[in-house]
Amino acid sequence: MSQETLLLSSLVVGLMVLASVVGFVLKMRVGFVPHGVIDNLNARIKAWWVMIVVLGIAFALGRVAVVLLFFGISFYALREFLTLAPTRRADYYALLMAFYVALPLQYFFILTQWYGMMSIFLPVYGFLLLPIFAALGGDTTRFMERASTVQWGVMIAVYCISSIPALMLIPIPGYEGRNLLLIAWLVLVVQSSDILQYVCGKLFGKRKIAPLLSPSKTVEGFAGGVLAASLLGAALYWITPFHFGQAFVMALLVNLLGFAGGLVMSAIKRDRGVKDWGAMIEGHGGMLDRLDSLCFAAPIFFHVVRYGWGLPVA
């Protein structure tokens, strides 16, 4: 384990211990009786412990384990997305292709470090082939809505999420063997932005930023959370190939994209008439409820890093 990895792990564990202590003290101060905000906070902390342990184990096992972990995440996220989709029996072949061809092939390209196919397979071949298989079902009822929903699900749950482990494909001069830290930086910054927006919103929030899409989001929470998380990303520049100023700009970029992604995914949930994508993670809803910000931030971050800092890859 490198010195950077050891120091980052110590910081993360230390912050989680501090958060757990704060959550316990807050619960004790209200007499351990039910309290909506504190109970939600403690549920989030417990879920974060689980996620950090799982990610830590995958990171310790190496590249293959990380790819397999995100393969499983994509599978579950795609299942959540399409469970809420207006599909019909005639979509069987399209769904079969999505789960058992498109998804495995995307991660196979990442595992075999085939950058070209990883980048274009789903946006080009998947985009065209999935509606073809849907059409073979012979059902024209709401065909455009059904076909585009499957396309959207594959792009969000497979292509966007797979951009996180794909960061390991980028050869960065002077940063060899440390790409896992780039994944850690992205996840920490974007997820901390979500948490800090929640905290700032509870402390200072007054004006709703998108009341019909996400009633809990406020202008004050958005501004405070994004700024604080961007400063955190800048402070963690030492685990990235960026210098301090670049790290701040990159953090600001992914945090803004993460916020936009959260709004888009909230709009989809409102359209389907549900509050959460699922109930997999206590305190966080479903898999997509936790990853909605990363879904929009990860692919842009991948390509900016690739073209800004990486060497040409085959």
Automatic annotation (TrEMBL):
One BP annotation, GO: peptidoglycan-based cell wall biogenesis
Any matching Pfam family: CTP_transf_1
Keywords from the named record: Membrane, Nucleotidyltransferase, Transferase, Transmembrane, Transmembrane helix
GO molecular function, one term: nucleotidyltransferase activity
Any Gene Ontology CC annotation: plasma membrane
Transmembrane regions: 47-78, 90-109, 115-137, 149-170, 182-200, 221-240, 246-268
Name listed for the protein in its UniProt record: Phosphatidate cytidylyltransferase
Keyword Membrane: yes
